[in-house]
Design a protein that fits this description.
Strand content: 15-25%
Bound molecules: zinc ion
CATH superfamily of the largest domain: Creatinase/methionine aminopeptidase superfamily
Number of strands: 18
CATH class of the largest domain: Alpha Beta
Largest sheet: 6 strands, mixed
Radius of gyration: 23 Å
Number of helices: 10
Shape: elongated
Helix content: 25-40%
CATH architecture of the largest domain: Alpha-Beta Complex
Structural class: alpha+beta
Number of domains: 2
CATH topology of the largest domain: Creatine Amidinohydrolase
Strand order of the largest sheet: 4-3-2-1-5-6
Distance between the termini: 54 Å
Length: 356
């Protein structure tokens, strides 16, 4: 039994649960090493199964040492789980209540009756929240590659080029240089589009005087990175230059307090209060940051809901923004790992306002 499964089993014992059904793609990889998504793990106190279909049997045998590989896809999965649970006297079984859809849940509930299905809630995300040195290394590599991508794309940013062309060029560079894919579709938002925090790249061409916001991340060995930079095309409008400075100050104030023992709420407040003090409190409508790992958005949260204490090994983004509909927006995002005495910034791209 690997160390991660051992921790899950310890949590099962603590919650008086006898088994766990796991099917979220990132959890499959985390607990078993399986890199595809078409499988279900059944973890019992002393044995672990990976249930998949013909296409993935060999892959599972190679990737998942310690797991017995079972060919029982689709409608055969729940009866297999029932049989194992009955033979091992399991009466309470965790399921990922944020992953399983209603149809899957219904089929498990029907097949497992009278075994009780218990929502696992945040158990798996809490187990994944503190990263090992290996995990941080993968994230560090992904962040470094993103930094290189940013330097590369600066050479392509000029009036007349479209948001889509910028996003495509950046994606090509990142993938050619080792990113397994994108952590999420690249956001390239110019001019007025910059006020949409998650704008999709359009055919809009960049124009002098505008800002361009680029938000993107790489993937290395399954682990994501996430960074945002906003740059100016030529001399920016004074209003845009002003919100850039305020956003940067807010980010630096938040970074100033990041250390073990502080909550996400407190870190978020540093940036939020600064932006509000400058009159833009209503223009920063999202949380300050989020955890990053196998998922680009995971625990912990740096926001008004982030009541978890930060611990060494947690990896979080710090990304304040100011968005003014009809004018544009700014976001600056770094990725940091919490250390014993503070944090290490994994993003090293410059943050002074770049004018291209
Ligand atoms: Zn981002
Ligand atoms: Zn982010």
């Amino acid at each position: 039994m690997n160390h991660r499964v051992e921790k899950l089993v310890a949590a099962m014992k603590e919650h008086e649960v006898d088994a766990a059904i796991i099917s979220q793609k990132e959890n499959l990889r985390y607990f078993s090493g399986f890199t595809a998504s078409e499988a279900v793990l059944l973890i019992l106190k002393n044995e672990s199964y990976i249930i998949t279909d013909f296409r993935y049997i060999e892959q599972a045998q190679i990737q998942c040492p310690g797991f017995k590989v079972i060919d029982a896809p689709g409608t055969r999965t729940a009866p297999f789980v029932k049989e194992k649970c009955v033979s091992l006297d399991a009466s309470r079984v965790w399921f990922e209540d944020n992953v399983m859809n209603f149809r899957e849940y219904s089929s498990f509930r029907e097949a497992l009756d009278p075994i009780e299905l218990v929502p696992a809630k945040d158990i798996t995300s809490n187990l994944r929240i503190v990263k090992t040195a290996d995990e941080v290394n993968n994230i560090r590599k992904a962040a470094k590659l993103a930094d290189q991508g940013f330097l590369h794309i600066l050479n392509h940013i000029r009036p007349g080029v479209s948001e889509k062309e910028i996003a495509l060029e950046l994606e090509f560079f990142l993938r050619k240089n080792g990113s397994e894919g994108l952590a999420f579709p690249i956001i390239a938002a110019a001019g007025k589009n910059g006020s949409l925090p998650h704008a999709e790249p359009s055919d809009k061409k960049l124009e002098l005087g505008e800002f361009l916001t680029l938000d993107f991340g790489c993937v290395v060995n399954g682990y994501c990175s996430d960074m945002t930079r906003t740059v100016a095309l030529g001399r920016p409008d004074p209003k845009l230059a002003e919100i850039y400075e305020i956003t940067l100050e807010a980010q630096l104030k938040a970074l100033d307090v990041i250390r073990p023992g502080i909550t996400g709420i407190e870190v978020d407040k540093q940036a939020r209060d600064h932006i509000a003090s400058k009159g833009y409190g209503n223009n920063f409508g999202h949380g300050l940051g989020h955890g990053v790992g196998l998922n680009v958005h995971e625990a912990p949260s740096l926001s008004v809901r982030g009541d978890k204490l930060l611990e060494p090994g947690m990896v979080v983004t710090v990304e304040p923004g100011i968005y003014i509909p009809g004018t544009g927006g700014v976001r600056i995002e770094d990725l940091v790992v919490i250390t014993e005495d503070g944090y290490e910034n994994l993003t090293s791209s410059r943050k002074d306002l770049i004018q291209l």
